[in-house]
Write a structure and sequence with these properties.
- The structure is a homodimer.
- By secondary structure, the first copy, chain A, is of the alpha/beta class.
- Helices cover about 30% and strands about 30% of the residues of chain A.
- Chain A has 9 helices and 11 strands.
- In chain A, strand 8 and strand 9 form a beta hairpin.
- At the A-B interface, strand 7, helix 8 and strand 10 of A face strand 7, helix 8 and strand 10 of B.
- Strand 7 of chain A pairs antiparallel with strand 7 of chain B.
């Protein structure tokens, strides 16, 4: 299944209202943590999988990437990307990851921001990225944290007065499809354990460079409603890895 | 603070009734996962930190370790270890980790089973182990999972009829002391994020070899009461790493 909720008109309208959509990188709570683990882009051939509005693609291009191939399944996403984040080094392509194919050892860097939890087959992802990367090439991805995806609803557990009590975890070792609610809309996501994410890379010959759970920066905690609750449970995982074997 | 609950008479009595105490490695749900990531012990100098009953120390000795230095803070633990798991290659020592010191590059392998969540200073642990390991030496530890330690109570969240609803996560990014209940007794433990555990090793020059969340083997799920619930949330994390820098 190729999940393409972002071409749904209502869903896309809601997504476009999020801080990360309106403000770009500065509105994304994970950006400072992600930025700190990104490799040097100068002269690099970059692939951006699930590029969305293209913020990361343009960032790589502005840091000197020789080329950025930026793919997304959603036509609506790409329309905004071409408008907001056009750059002479960036090529935007409409393509589902499941259909993508590139020659072996094409890219120095593969970026993948918040796409993996929409993907049914993580093993296929690891295989393809490993093949497409040059030796020594770098993969950096962000994904919803297994703590966040395990239960399924992706919502807090509330008390009788509607106050947040805590975040629920259940069925952690039962991987696979979850019916989540995101922006008030039904979305299919996939839960995987931390073990699956990291051991999948290690077994395929990647060396782990970083495994970080981003905390929102203090300024966002102060200024964005609800952001302080992001200190109560991890929502994202950032992984960077190098193809060494 | 040197946490030494195991020399409390009641606590130790209760501990001695656990499957892992009565049956040793076969009674420990994480053992198959841990065993799979252990290095070759033949001819190796091994340090076992928080050795408890000494099951792992004897295992390493029986697999050909040249020497196993096995330390624990608890006299009661060591008394059982000397009785149940004596081996000519194993030296049991009473020593709190905080007081331990060894010459640089003394050991090929450092084991540390379920001790780190009693330790206030993880950075100190990483520093010391890095110093004591020979170049290329291996650290393997098991620790209570950040999902398990975050909330503090280490208990499920129950419904009105006493049924398990889910496992609660809260205060994930707020590291430090937690007042937990283990075996019905009050115990001080320390919560750290996954980021702290893994980045602490990476920053100090370790290469991550494995990061695994053990699931109990099917046989234990079938035969041990309550073990099936262990599939609902991760309780432990197993990390192995090599000193490469």
């Amino acid at each position: 299944m190729r999940e393409n909720r972002y071409d749904d008109e209502i869903f896309f309208q809601k997504y476009s209202q999020m801080a990360r959509s309106r403000q770009g990188l500065a509105g994304a709570g994970e950006w400072p943590t992600l930025q700190a683990v990104l490799p040097d882009f100068a002269g690099k051939a970059v692939l951006d999988l699930g590029c969305g509005y293209g913020w990361h693609a343009r960032y790589a291009a502005e840091r000197g990437a020789a080329s950025v191939t930026a793919c997304d399944i959603s036509e609506k996403m790409l329309a905004v990307a071409r408008e907001k984040n056009a750059h002479s080094a960036v090529t935007y392509r409409r393509e589902a990851f499941e259909d993508a194919d590139y020659p072996a050892e094409t890219f120095d860097v593969v970026l993948c921001s918040l796409m993996l939890h929409y993907l049914a087959d993580y093993g296929d992802f690891v295989e393809k990225v490993h093949r497409w990367l040059k030796p020594g090439g770098i993969l950096v991805y962000t994904v919803e944290h297994p703590v966040f995806t395990a239960y399924g609803s992706q919502d807090w557990y509330y008390g009788p007065d509607g106050e947040i009590l805590h975040f629920p975890v259940d069925n952690y070792y039962i991987e696979g499809q979850r019916d989540a609610v995101f922006l008030g809309e039904h979305v299919v996501k996939y839960h995987r354990t931390l073990t699956t994410y990291l051991e999948g890379l290690l077994a395929r010959g990647f060396t782990l460079l970083h495994v970080r759970e981003p905390q929102p920066p203090e300024e966002l905690v102060r200024t964005v409603p609800g952001m302080a609750d992001e200190l109560r449970r991890p929502m994202m995982l950032i992984v960077s890895a190098r193809k060494d074997r």
